[in-house]
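Trying the structure run again after the queue cleared.
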Amino acid sequence: MGEERLNLPNTPEKWAIHLSKLIKVFHEAHGLDRFPINVAGIARDYSKQVFPGAPITMIEGMALSRKFEGAMLPHPSGNGEWGIIYNERIESKGRINFTLAHELGHYLLHREISAEGLKCSSRDMHKWNSEYGQIEAQANTFASYLLMPLDDFRDQISSHPIDLDLMSHLADRYDVSLTATILKWLGMTHKRAMIVVGKEGFIDWAWSSEPLIKSGIFYRARQKVTPLPDASLAAKQDMLIDNRTGILHSRGVWLGQEEVREMTIVSDHNRMSISLLLYPDDAPGKWDRDLDEPPEHDTYDQFVIGGQV
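Done. Tokens:
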């Protein structure tokens, strides 16, 4: 199959949907499970068929710095071939899978504007307020849509209570990290909710759903050092409490003067925590809030990691 530029997608979402449709048809025709998606196989086969002059011929793991996530690189000989590299030191299989999809997104969207390739670290992915950061954000969007298609994701969460057990089930189904799964849900939900990732007693980063942002509740964790609330499950790490089921906190424990349900898991090996916070569906009335207007929200306040725990 030749490369027909005019007929190819031109956005991260459209590229992911295009590939998802092909994958679904192929798996249904052969009686195969649709998930988890074999990113490496798809990258090789699709690029060979559609971009025969610039195929992906190498996908490998290498022992690299822990700050390094992955890379999309041209063959050093200049023969037109491309390779995808991921950091084999990453212990989470789901995080590696997301990295592969992220780099495939770079290949489809950015290889012609980045002829020397792209190297991706966690810090690079956080730069949402720069041109380079927008490129990383596009690759994250592609990976999310490819690995966790909206149609299936909605079917999986339909009629189920939102909790960490459901998010863990989805992470296993799609072979992604728990963090990536929660971020996917936050990006599509109508509920007021937030993920908070803690590290050594402080908020490392946080992400609020759009409805929660509109009610003025979000953390500026990267601009201001913010300790985890003393009464939070993330800070207390009380083994006698079922942290996955969580508890309903009284007003004032977490940001905002509302009751908040917190569910938390803790990773012992890197002293990190992931908290899923569920706020009431209805925000407090205008006159119930503080008279001071909340600070204007900046997209830099939120960060997509792709999975740390």
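The chain has ten helices and nine strands. Worth checking whether this holds up in the mutant runs.
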